[in-house]
Structures are given as C-alpha cells and as structure tokens.
C-alpha cells in the first residue's frame, strides 16, 4: 500500500470523525423533526390518561435533561461512534485491502463501506426496525436489543462467509459471471434465513401513532446511518488516494527513497 498502518489508522479516525459529523447533521435536520412529532403524541397521552389505557408512555413528567441538551448529546455521541467505526474500518481495510474489489483505494474504500452499511446497518434495520419514542414498551428494551445485536452479528458473519466462498469459487475453473451469480445466490439465501428465523420486534404500533410517522422515523434513522457510511467510505478513500498521489510525486521528485506518507 505504501502507507504505514499508523498512517491508515489516522486517516480512519479523521474519516470517522467527519462521518459522525455528517450523521449528526442528518439527526438534526431529518431525525429530530420526526422525534418531535412523536413527542407530541406522548404529551397528548399524558394529558388524556394514556398510561391508564395501556399505551406505552414515556412522557408526562418533566425530563431530567432538556430536549436541546439531548440533541447536543446525540450529536456528540454520533461523532464518538463515527470515530470508533472509523478505527475499525481502517483496521479491516488494512487487513483486507488486497482482497477488496475496486479500482484503487478509493474504489476499495467505497466497496468496504457498502458492505459495512449492508451488514451492520441495513440488515438489522430491516429485521428490527427503529421506532419513534411514541412506540415501544420499556419492558421489551432488553429483548429488542438482544435481537438487534444477534441480527447485526449475523450480518457480519454473512459479510465474512460470502467473500470466503468467493475465494474458494475463484480457485475453480468457472466463468467470473457464474461465480458472481453464485455469490448473489448465497447472499440472498443467507439473508433470507436471517429474515425467516430471527424473531421480529416484540412491540406493536399503538393505534394513536400514524403509520406515516413510523415510516418517516425509520427512513430518517436509516438515512442517518447511510450518511455515516457514505461519508466514511468517500472520505477515507479520498484521503488514501491523496496520500498515494503525494507519495508518487515524492518518488518522481526524488530519485532516492520515497517519503513515507
């Protein structure tokens, strides 16, 4: 690669920080307005005895932390998570760079980001979709978290198994198109098994929550995750491409040993 592991890791941290900032912007502009719509329903339940009617109610009392502070805290958390994801992304990229498809490090970074989004974000979101504050029973939080974690781990397992299968198929005499078709079949089969056998969310959407609110929140939450992964892949790839270009310039300018990036 021409870059030390520490250099790749630093670029992963920077790309992760920018990805977290992008996710925070989406939270502020897209997710937060939907959350406020859901909080209106919770407040209405508090005024009309929603708890007595058996509806999930998390409002009705003054929050210990203001909504503005919660938004700021969510943005800070998004940046921290982005940095953590960036570190893991850089480690995985450095380990698997030569096995990733794509033209140059920029293309490889985008491919890895797409795989990460599909395995870590999209599959769990499809199986255990996010719900706004007005939906969900506090007593089921543990079960929902466990199911989400199981689905995430299975998504990562699929992301590991399918490339391993592809490498085995590559050792056989077959057309690349046939190998890729078998890869697609394997992905569809494994994802289908996850969707069929992992239990779904235990929560039901209350009658007073509009369907469009639920879908708006789920799409907004998915947009936040997509922004994180897209920004991570683009930024990390651009940083690596820029480092490679700078290194090539150093090689052309100096007939001695190239300057390390």
Automatic annotation (TrEMBL):
InterPro entries: CbtA_put. Keywords: Membrane, Transmembrane, Transmembrane helix. It holds the Pfam family CbtA. It comes from Terrabacter tumescens. It comes from the Bacteria. The keyword Membrane applies. The chain crosses the membrane at residues 12-31, 71-94, 106-126, 146-165, 177-199, 219-240. This is Membrane protein. The keyword Membrane applies.
